[in-house]
Amino acid sequence: MRELRNLMELTAVLANGPLVADGFFRAMLSLPPAPDTAQPEEPGNPLPLSAAVEHCERRAILAALAATADNKAAAARRLGISERTLWYKLAKLGL
């Protein structure tokens, strides 16, 4: 969670306005493009910050679950959040 907070603070400093290009997060986290994205990930296609944060959370949660073989308790520890928070975010993001 601390890494996500740091990323959001860096985004707020570097953003040119209220919209952030999705490619910004992909570049900052060195992540490959997601196959399940609803919007094309092009530099000229900015996302509202709330959608960008949701996208970033989704990717971080999926990566943690993959790294822990879907062990929710271990994934929550890896993300620095409580297991209850992870379950809440899983339901919210439809995972």
The count of DSSP E runs of length 2 or more, i.e. the number of strands, is: 2
Strand content: 5-15%
The low-confidence parts are: none
The percent range for helix content is 55-70%
Tell me, rounded to a whole number, the average pLDDT: 77
Provide the structure class.
Answer: mainly alpha
Rg from Cα = 13 Å
Structural overview:
- With 95 residues, this protein is mainly alpha-helical.
- The chain has one domain.
- It contains five helices and two strands.
- The chain has helices spanning 2-14, 22-29, 49-67, 72-79, 83-93, and strands spanning 19-21, 46-48.
- It has a two-stranded antiparallel sheet with strand order 1-2.
- The longest helix is centred in the middle third of the chain and has 19 residues, at 49-67.
- The chain is elongated, with a radius of gyration of 13 Å.
- The two termini are 18 Å apart.
- The model has no long low-confidence stretch (mean pLDDT 77).
Which features does this protein show?
single chain; mainly alpha; two-stranded antiparallel ribbon; 62% helix
